[in-house]
Amino acid sequence: MDGGTLCRNLSRAGVRSGNNGSAPKWGREAGMDPGAGLFPLYYSVCLDEHLHVVNKMNKMIKRYLNHLISVILEPGKRGDKMRIILKESAINKEYSISGGNLMTRMIKKHRMLSLTLIGLLALSLTACGSGESKPSAAGAAGESKYPEKPLVVVAPSGAGGGWDKTARSVAKVLGEAKLVEQPMTVENKPGGGGVVFMAQYATQDKKNDYRLFVNSPPILINNLKKEGNSPYGYKDTTPLAQLTKDYGALVVPADSKYKDLKSVLDALKANPDTVIVAGGSAPGSMDHLVAVLPAYKAGIDPKKVKYVSYDGGGQAMTALLGGNADVIATDASSVGEYVKAGKVKVLAVSAPKRLEGILKDVPTMKEQGLDAEFNIWRGVFGPKEMTADAKAYWETKLKALHESEAWKKELQANSWEADYLGSTEFATFLGKQETLVKDMLTALGMAK
Hints:
Elements: H1 3-12, H2 25-29, E1 43-47, E2 50-54, H3 59-65, E3 68-74, E4 81-88, E5 91-98, H4 104-109, H5 111-128, E6 151-155, H6 162-176, E7 184-188, H7 195-204, E8 211-215, H8 218-224, E9 237-253, H9 261-270, E10 276-279, H10 286-297, E11 306-309, H11 313-321, E12 327-331, H12 336-340, E13 344-349, E14 375-383, H13 388-403, H14 405-413, E15 417-421, H15 423-443
Parallel strand pairs: 6-7, 6-8, 10-11, 10-12
Antiparallel strand pairs: 1-2, 3-4, 4-5, 8-14, 9-12, 9-13, 9-14, 9-15
């Protein structure tokens, strides 16, 4: 908003600027000298739905700002309610003002301070004008200091898999783009396809705002499956943002006797014990579901598929290249470098249509006669009892990450597809996905 537009808006709201103009009506009622020059309040900025009021005030207002502890905007029925905390005789008192109406009692007790606060209120409500101001913990004298120390992003798996790559890409871009000033490190916490990490995080780190983690459908699957399950799920965290979506891939060594998906399914039908299928997560988890999905859709009992689990896609790939597995189910985005090097061949992807980039010539499962799809989303989570300041901080930063050019380049380099959901939308999506996963596990006889 330019200065002229703002001045016109303020004028319509009954706020006048300049040293020679008369004081606003509420200023006269409070006994304020019209020539005292309460204003100008020059401009306001609305950024990402968070209200930031930038004020250039004269000396009179500045004298009274030391009395202000914080100003907290709270959405009312019309989005115009403000809670004001004042310091009076070392006792905190709260007052509520709706719109621009001034409480008579407040005028009498806090003449000049009231004028200052109502001026701020009128400016914020009129300049932003959205009627949807969000609560803010960053008041005029009480801005959040989070984060005040280094941050950790956990990949609940070994190095080389989808979680690991996502965590490192997030930390890299946030740091290099200076979206986050504090140092960020990535830790790998393998074990049980994320089960071991969740047991620790949900109990020991439930209030730790400085420890985030990356996850995907296993946070739902591990909580719903019958064997090797976790008592903890997404409801034991604070979902912050979904960032990407990926798809499953069935991969064989470059010199494998299996040339297409049909040849693998034919071998499974003839003798399931002759085909060793591996993945980077525990039985009943995401890689396992991707591995058995084609067999299930082809009428093969998924419980007869010989599945071997490893801690992370990197270890599963090592097993494949070392001759310890015939086929692996993994993330499509994690196999590009092996395809380029001529080490592996991808037989199918679980996408609704062919992917772009290095895997553009790989047929989908649907193309090969199977009604099968599996979307592997990835997102960032915080602790269940995350503070409001920290949650708001990460909602802003992760949205900025999603919109940055550096992140778009990272997506392209890893063959990821952007699929951003904010905290509220992400939590809603997880609830729906949880129902779908439970139905799938039940159909496969793997639900608890």
